[in-house]
Amino acid sequence: MTDVKGFCAPRFEAVRAALGALLDKDDVGASAAVYVNGEPVVDIWGGYADADRSVSWERDTITGVNSTTKNMTALCALILADRGELDLSAPVAAYWPEFATAGKENVLVRHVLSHTAGLPDVSGLTAVEELYDWESVCAALAAQAPDWVPGTSAGYHALTFGFLVGEIVRRVTGRSLGEFFAEEVAEPLGADFHIGLSPEHDHRVTPLIPPPSLTDEYAATAPPGPDGAPRENTGAAIRVKDANSAAWRRAQIPAVNGFGNARSVALVQSVLANRGSAGGVRLLSPQGCEPAWQEEFRGGDRVLGTPMSWTAGFGKFGNTFGWGGWGGSLVASDPDSRMTVAYVMNQMIDRDRQEDNRGMEIIMAAYSGLH
Q1: Among 36, 308, 317, 334, which residue has the fewest nearby CB atoms (within 10 Å)?
Q2: Active site residue: 31, 54, 56, 67, which one?
Q3: Is 153 a residue of the active site?
Q4: What is the spatial distance between Cα 53 and Cα 17, in angstroms, rounded to a whole number?
C-alpha cells in the first residue's frame, strides 16, 4: 500500500485509508485535509509529483486546483460584504459604473456570485492568452448583453465568475483579487494558497496529469445544454498544457487558476464552516458567513444541464456547500458540524469517460470520523 504521510487524528483514520486506497488505484499524487472547529484533524499526502513517479509528493507540494479556486474568490466578496464595504444586494454598476450597459443596470452583486447574472461566457474570446489581459476581458464583460434576464435563471459562469467578482473587489479595494486574497486571507491564516503564483514557488508545483489515455491537449469542454444538445462553447478551450504553463501561473484568472494543496484549501474554507474564524484568526463575523450556505437560486442550470442550488458563491448540496475543479479537486464545508474537507490531486479524470468519486470518498470517510 502507498505510504501516506502526515497527521491524522485517530477517529479520522478512515480518511487516511481512503487516500491510501486512491493512491493504490487511480491517483499518482494527492493530498487530503479535514478541519473541524477551525482546527486540523487530518493533514495527509502521498504518492508522486510527476507522471513518471520519480519525485515524491511532499508536504509543501502544490498544484492547480482549477474551479476549486472559486471558493476562495467568493470568500473575498463575503469578507468585504461583512465589513460593510460591499452590498450583495446593490447593482454591480454601483461599484463598476461602466457595467451599466446593454441591459445590465439591474445585475446585482448577488447575481454575479450565484451564477445568475446571464454572463456565462466572454463574447469574442477565442484564445487562452486573451484571458491574461484583465482589462480587456473586464471591458468585454462590461459591454456585452446578458444571455437571460439576470436573476431569473442560472448558468455556470466557468471563467467569467472570477473576472466579475474580481473586478468588483478591485473597484472596492484598489487591489487585484489575488492581492486582496494574499493580504487579507492567506497571510493572516498562514495558508499556502495563491491566485497568481510568483516564480519562487514554481519548483513546488506538480503539473496536472491528463486523464488516462489522453494527452496534455485534453481540454475543458462546455457541458451540454439543458436539452442534452451540445452547447456552443463561445470561450477559449483551456487545455492541460495551458493550465501547466508559466503564463497561466502568473495570470489572474480567479475562477480557475488558484494553486495550493488540500491543507491550504481546507484551512481557508474552514473559516466559513467555523462561523468566521480558523486557527484563532477571525476574518469575518458569524453572520457574515451565512450567505455561503443560504440559497440564492434553485433550478435547472443552463450551462451544466442539471438541477443546481447556488448560494452567494458556492454550490449547495444538502447541508454542505463548496465546489470542485476540472479534473477532480474538491472542497466541501458543513456549517452544522463545523467541518471542512478538501481533496487535491495531480491525476485528472475525465468524467465523460470514467466516474470520479475520489473527492466524495474522502468526504464520506471524514463523516465517518464525526460520528
Answers
A1: 317
A2: 67
A3: no
A4: 21
Contact call for residues 251 and 163 (beta carbons, < 8 A): no
Angle, to 10 degrees, between the axis of helix 134-143 and the axis of helix 160-173? 100
Range(s) of the domain holding residue 242 = 4-370
Which CATH number do you get for residue 111?
A: 3.40.710.10
In this structure, are strands 4-8 and 39-47 parallel, antiparallel, or unpaired? antiparallel
Residue 222 has pLDDT above 60, yes or no: no
- CA–CA separation, 64 vs 293, rounded Å? 25
Q: How many domains does the chain have?
A: 1
The yes-or-no verdict on residue 348 having pLDDT over 70 is: yes
Grid cell at residue 343:
481533496
List pLDDT tens digits, range 119-170. Answer: 999 999 999 999 999 999 999 999 999 999 999 999 999 999 999 999 999 9
> What is the DSSP code string of 185-242?
IIHHHT---EES--GGGGGGBPPPBPPTT--TT-B--PPP-TTSSPPP--SPPPBHHH
Please answer whether residues 271 and 181 qualify as being in contact, where contact means their C-beta atoms are separated by less than 8 angstroms.
no
Which grid coordinates are listed for 263?
A: 491543507
Rounded to whole angstroms, what are the CA distances from 305 to 300, 310, 354, 365? Answer: 7, 14, 19, 29
Query: Do 184 and 169 touch, CB atoms closer than 8 A?
Result: no
Q: What is the pLDDT of residue 245?
A: 98
Inter-residue contact 181 to 201 (CB < 8 Å): no
CA distance 238 to 244: 10
Asked if residues 231 and 304 have their Cβ atoms less than 8 Å apart, the reply is no
How far apart, in whole angstroms, are the C-alpha atoms of residue 1 and residue 20?
Answer: 7
The single-letter code of the amino acid at 99 is F
